[in-house]
Amino acid sequence: MSEVISPKIQNQITMLQQLQQQMQTLLNQKNQYEIAAQETRRAIEELNETSDDAEVYHSIGTVMMQRPKSVVLENLTEKAENFEIRISSIEKQEKLVQEKFESLQAQVKAAMEGGSQAA
Amino acid sequence: MSSVDPREVQSLQMYLQEYSQQAEMVSRQLAIMEEGIREGNGAIESLRMIHESDGGIVLLPLGGGVNTRVRVENPDHYLVNIGADVVVSKTKEDSVSFLQERITEMNASYKNLSEALGRLQSQIRDISTRLDYLYKQSQEEQGRRQGVSTGVSQKIR
Predict the structure, then answer these.
(1) Which residue, A9, A53, B18, B109, has fewest beta-carbon neighbours within 10 Å?
(2) In which domain, by residue range, is B123 found?
């Protein structure tokens, strides 16, 4: 039931697993930023629908301070843009890791197939 | 030579682990969502009751089961957390409709997640069935091999 896998292939499989973990970490980070960006965009929408004289409080440190609506909107817009930049940076990293993964996967597959044909 | 491919077993085990983790994560999300829906409905109920009590006294929980009496200063306006660390003053009606909107969205997500969980559970069942079959097949082959070797040793004796 067992087949011998060469140390080189074993090493490549370990690398594949590491790349997979790296992709998972990036995906988790991206998800967190996407959720935060979505929440910020929704808060902006909600604020835009609120009347200009409504009391608006924003968290500063451990307290909620009353701030002018325009200032809070400006802060939120900046925050949303920052999230978008982080997301696109993670997407670039994701692409690179994915390419590495696919190339290594093809190498392992070719080596395994070669090995089984030889056997 | 065994007919059970160890690579298939390994791959199925990996998929089983992956799907089980995903199912656990989805279950946790469902529990959070359920709690959110319950909390939203509770808040709507509280808003209505405070409004109806018209300046009556309510108990404000301080934690650890301790409460203090509070008279609601302005039962027509509430401070609503709209997300992203922002709190906005809203009328009672706007606060209720804000909560209702969120509850509707959460219900829709809950339904989608429940369906996703159902699909994952079905995949987990299929993989487990296949793995069970492969384990049994492997054990039977092992048993047959042992039977053959015992027979040979008996003949030698």
Answers:
(1) A53
(2) 6-148
One-letter amino acid at A11 equals N
How distant is the Cα of B29 from the closest Cα of chain A, in angstroms?
Answer: 14
Q: Is B116 part of any domain?
A: yes
User: Which pair of tokens denotes residue A75?
Assistant: 């802060």
CATH topology of domain A26-118: Helix Hairpins (1.10.287)
B8, B126 in Cβ contact below 8 A?
A: no
Residues of chain B in contact with residue A55, where contact means CB-CB under 8 angstroms, are: 79, 88-89
Report the number of distinct structural domains present in chain B.
Answer: 1
Residues of chain A with pLDDT under 70: 1-3, 115-119
CATH of the domain at B12: 1.10.287.370
Q: What is the pLDDT of residues B37-95, one digit of tens each?
A: 999 999 999 999 988 887 788 999 999 999 999 998 888 899 999 999 999 999 999 99
Question: Residue A1 is nearest to which of B4, B82, B90, comparing CB atoms?
Answer: B4
Q: Which of residues 49-108 of A touch B (CB under 8 A)?
A: 50, 54-59, 64, 72, 76, 79
Q: B85: nearest CA in chain A?
A: A59
What ipTM, to 2 d.p.?
0.76
